[in-house]
Amino acid sequence: MATLAQNKKAKKSPKTSTFSWAGLDRKGNKVKGEIVGENLSVVRATLRKQGINAQKVKKKPKDLFAAAPKKITPLDIALFTRQLATMMKAGVPLVQSFEIVADGVDNPSMRDLVLKVKNEVEAGNSLASAIGKYPQHFDDLFCSLVDAGEQSGALETMLDRVAIYKEKSEALKLKIKKAMKYPIVVLIIAAVVTAILLLKVVPVFEDLFASFGAELPAFTQMVLGMSDWLQNNWYILIGVIVGGGFGFKQARIRSQKFNDGLDRIVLKLPVVGDIIFKATIARFARTLSTTFSAGVPLVEALESVAGATGNVVYRNAVNTIREEVSSGTQLNFSMRATGVFPSMALQMVAIGEESGSLDTMLDKVANYYEDEVDNAVDGLTSMMEPLIMSFLGVVIGGLIIAMYLPIFQIGAVV
Predict the structure, then answer these.
(1) Cβ-contact 310, 296 below 8 angstroms
(2) Which end of the chain is more exposed for a tag (fewer CB within 10 A), N or C?
(3) Pseudo-torsion of CA 148, 153, 156, 157, nearest 10°?
């Protein structure tokens, strides 16, 4: 069985093109179609292995006006894994399973990827080595588990486990995004509405107040000052927002220290930090359960788990645990020494080690914390709705009151 370290030496995915072909099958019938390959000779060789006497093969020209290819998402990979596992459990041969899956895929990019993997398998390569050529879509953990399934002769069972793992992982990510998306969208709308009021509505009142000839309330003067500044310097504000967003994105891409600092800060945030904490524990338990149940040695499994946690605090903790486990320390003692794992997870791991059912107990831990994340996200959404409505009421209502306050004062004098 290939180790995780070996799988990290993934090959770069070759540059491929789509070729159209026409020829005769084994029975002499005329057939035609399309195939993805690296070059003309590789395509002809692949067709010969399929029993096709290719009489005409040519590279399909690219459409200059075609829309940009649709990206392959982790959800596409999860769905592909589930479909492939289902086909194989039903007794469908691997190559035929690829063809069935490819026919049902809506994303053209994903369909091309499935056909490329199929061609690799048809050429005599193992499934693990075939998907290993596309590390941007199939990570080391995925390749290692598939390799373990092929080596043990239980590929369909392993694909089912990988499918469950991918589905659970993506569901967890969607829950986190759901928790963050709603307040961000509402706050952006509030900022846009406020800017419109300051740029278009407040100046109308300012002209009206100029005819009063009386001193305006301090609150009204403050809002008028904000309106004047925004009218004269709106481009600066936009520049700061765009520059800040671009700088943040580049820092995320280029600076590991920035990402590590951000990971630590996120864990300390109220409410959101608790959700991230529970999601991280769930990912740790789910990944370790999946790899350990697949027969991957615990030390190698922990190497993969470290990268799957998604947070530098837990990545460092898992690396420390791996070093201690490799020297003979029990997993639960190593986890306890880091001080970052909850007692419930520690107790379940200890029970699993004593009873010889570590993978089962880790699966229970993962299920528990995934449910906790789900409940926390629902609670956060319910809590955020009244808070955001109150915030909008204060901001928008405050602007309106500031504009009408001088009129109210004049009415009181009269």
Answers:
(1) no
(2) C
(3) -70
- CA torsion sign for 242, 243, 247, 253 is positive
Place of tokens 């990268």: 307
Residue tagged 């995320």 (tokens): 252
Query: CA-to-CA distance for 267 and 251, rounded, in angstroms?
Result: 19
Write out pLDDT tens, residues 252-311.
888 889 988 998 998 888 878 888 899 899 989 988 988 888 788 888 888 878 878 888
CB 131 within 8 A of CB 117: yes
Which tokens hold the place of 168?
């659970």
Residues 6+ apart with CB under 8 A from 193: 396
Structure tokens at 37: 């390959």
DSSP string, 127-144: HHHHHTT-TTTS-HHHHH
Is pTM beyond 0.90 here? no
All residues at 6 or more sequence positions from 340 whose CB lies less than 8 Å from its CB, including other chains: 313, 314, 317
Quick count: other Cβ atoms within 10 Å of Cβ 35? 24
Contact call for residues 7 and 147 (beta carbons, < 8 A): yes
CA distance 134 to 12: 7
Amino acid code (one letter) for 193: V
8 Å CB contact between 341 and 335: yes
Under DSSP, the state recorded for 51 is T
Element of type H or E holding 31: strand 30-37
- The neighbouring-strand residues paired with 58 are 20
